[in-house]
Write a structure and sequence with these properties.
The chain is α/β, with parallel strands linked by helices and 463 residues long. It has 15 helices and 23 strands. Helix 7 packs parallel to helix 10.
């Protein structure tokens, strides 16, 4: 074992198996949140790079080996997360961890056949979570195509509420008005809870004035979200057709969801064998075997007339180039998949439409579980964690499972931290956009939006 001394932190003891892109992202996030992290990987070069960059330990070897897990500290670990490129290895690592230690285990499983059996595998193997980054990315893309004027859509309250990010165009009726005026003029119950302007994120008060090019996130029930968008001049109909470049797992999962929504799907895939397999698995889609980066092929297949365009190649640069081309020659809603996490300032400066980061989606689901476990050792008081504006703000859905300093008091009586909003309450399935006279009750779930990071419990909102 090598790396830094892990005895001085006060978080959870976490073992991460797999030092690839997802593993490195998890190590960075978990270390930043003050957990004791040990990384297992066969590749010494990866271990050296990651352990040197972050305050973590490293163990070289096979994560499915009992001796290696023992060296990594499985006896005292609270959680093992396996995110290697092999589904089978991930499941084996987690199964061994459950037998060798008393820890919880999370496995990344990406193969469609396994994903269809995720609930069965999780229950029979006793895993805390099975996560599929490609499926989750596809689901996020599908939500945006259902409401294409949105840049991002996050779901809360088991899908009953949505947080929607939009960009305010020049001349929109919201420009020049305060949030209080916009709320008063709208019959829909929504709350604008975060605004990004010139790279700075604001948790706004009712006096905040909206300007053109602001990116704002608002929260509402699904029905009220669409009504509000329509009332302030945004289109709310779903797209009717989609062109996808690249036929990997994300494309497969996305196509299945879009076909179920009644959306026409065309996939351009360069590999002949993969194209043939997709044509068998997705009989409702049009599968084209060809180079999706070929301008003449894109025009031949109708890029100028398609309503949405989603480049899902394995190369970020190709996805960016294809989106910029599509935005030049068509009016299509574009969604760009980005794998690498760097150069966010450059990505944000380009006109790419919506941008999806599968690694963010994976890490956020796991971080939400880790925070809940840290606070209450598994009672799962954090339901959902969603990062806003390149991680400059967080939206966290908490379960209110016991009486505390935040329950039974009107919000106006609570001494809340600055840069924080209580955005939504889910009470027995009823979605409430709260005012100062509302209060929390045991059994509620509540969404908090804040520029603070690292909240583990609902009481963290108090000063």
């Amino acid at each position: 074992m090598f790396g830094n001394d892990k005895s001085r932190k006060n978080g959870l003891n976490i073992i991460v198996v797999g030092g690839g892109k997802v593993g490195a992202t998890l190590v960075e996030r978990l270390s930043r949140e003050n957990h004791d992290v040990t990384l297992i990987d066969k590749n010494r070069v990866k271990l050296d790079a990651i352990t040197s960059a972050y305050d973590v330990m490293g163990v070289e070897g096979n994560g499915a080996s009992f001796a290696v897990q023992k060296e990594a500290g499985i006896d005292s670990a609270d959680l093992l997360i396996s995110v290697t490129d092999s589904d089978e290895l991930n499941l084996l690592c987690c199964t061994l961890a459950k037998r060798a230690g008393r820890c919880e285990a999370i496995a990344r499983v990406r193969t469609p056949e396994y994903s269809q059996e995720a609930a069965f595998l999780r229950d029979r193997l006793g895993l805390a979570m099975i996560i599929n980054p490609e499926f989750e990315a596809a689901s996020e893309i599908a939500r945006v195509l259902y409401m294409p004027t949105a840049l991002e859509i996050g779901t809360f309250a088991h899908g009953q509420a949505e947080m929607i990010k939009i960009k305010v165009p020049e001349g929109n009726q919201m420009c020049g008005h305060t949030l209080a005026e916009i709320s008063k003029a709208s019959s829909s119950k929504v709350l604008i809870c975060a605004v990004e302007r010139d790279g700075e994120v604001f948790i706004p008060s009712g006096h905040f004035i909206i300007r053109a090019d602001d990116k704002l996130s608002f929260i509402a029930s699904r029905k009220n979200a669409r009504t509000f968008l329509a009332s302030v001049g945004f289109q709310t109909h779903q797209v009717k057709s989609t062109m996808i470049v690249g036929g990997g797992r994300v494309a497969y999962y996305l196509a299945k969801q879009l076909l179920n929504m009644g959306i026409d799907v065309k996939i351009i895939e360069n590999d002949k064998e993969r194209a043939l397999k997709l044509s068998e698995e997705l009989p409702g889609a049009v599968i084209i075997n060809g180079d999706g980066t070929d301008e003449s092929l894109l025009r031949e297949e109708g890029i100028e007339y398609v309503e949405s365009f989603v480049p899902l190649t394995g190369i970020d640069e190709e996805n960016v180039m294809l989106t910029l081309y599509a935005r030049k020659v068509s009016e299509a809603k574009c969604i760009t998949k980005i794998t690498r996490m760097g150069f966010s300032s450059v990505i944000n400066s380009l006109d790419l439409g919506s941008v999806i980061y599968p690694r963010y989606i994976t890490s956020e689901a796991i971080i939400a579980y880790v925070r809940a476990k840290k606070e209450s050792m598994g009672s799962n008081n954090i339901q959902t964690l969603y990062h806003l504006f390149d991680q400059k703000a967080e939206a966290i859905e908490f379960n209110v499972d016991k009486e505390s300093g935040v329950t039974g008091k009107q919000f106006m009586e609570l001494k809340l931290k600055d840069n924080l909003l209580i955005a939504l309450i889910n009470r027995n399935g009823k979605i409430i956009i709260p005012s100062g006279t509302d209060s929390l009750m045991v059994g509620d779930t509540v969404v908090i939006v804040t520029t603070h990071t690292g909240f583990d419990a609902i009481t963290d909102i108090l000063r």
